[in-house]
C-alpha cells in the first residue's frame, strides 16, 4: 500500500468522524463539555484563520495535521457510546442530513469573527 493511499484513507476516516461529531452535537444526550469541544473543533476546521498561518513553511500545515485529529479524538471520547452509535447509524442511513446544516455553521463562524473584529476595533479606537 502506498503512502498516498494510506493518507487518503486517514483523511476519509477523519471526514466521517467530523460528520459524526456534527450529528452528535445536535443530540440532547451529548454532554455540554463535548458540545463545546465539538463546536471549537468544527469552528477551527471551517475557520479561514489558523493558529499558525499556512504560509509558514511546514509549521502552517503541521497544526492542521496534529491539532485537528487530537481535537476530534478528544471530542469523540467525551461523547457517550450510545450517542456515537446513533450518530454513525444516522450518517449511514441518511447522509443528506449534513448538507442542510452547512449554512448554520458558516453563519456562526462569520458572526464569531465579526464579533472579534468589532471588539478589536473598539479596543483600539478608544486609545
Structure write-up:
With 127 residues, the protein is mainly α. The protein contains 5 helices and no strands.
- Which secondary-structure class do the elements indicate? mainly alpha
Number of domains: 1
Number of helices: 5
* Principal-axes shape call: globular
Rounded Rg: 17 Å
- Distance between the first and last residues' Cα: 60 Å
Helix/strand order, N-terminal first: HHHHH
What is the arithmetic mean of pLDDT?
80
Task: Let me know the number of strands.
Answer: 0
Give the low-confidence spans: none
Beta content comes to under 5%
How many strands, what sense, and barrel or not for the largest sheet? none
Helix content: over 70%
Kindly summarize this structure in a few lines:
With 127 residues, this protein is an all-alpha fold. The chain is built from five helices and no strands. The relative contact order is 0.13.
Write the layout of secondary structure elements.
Layout: H1 3-25, H2 32-46, H3 59-78, H4 81-93, H5 102-125
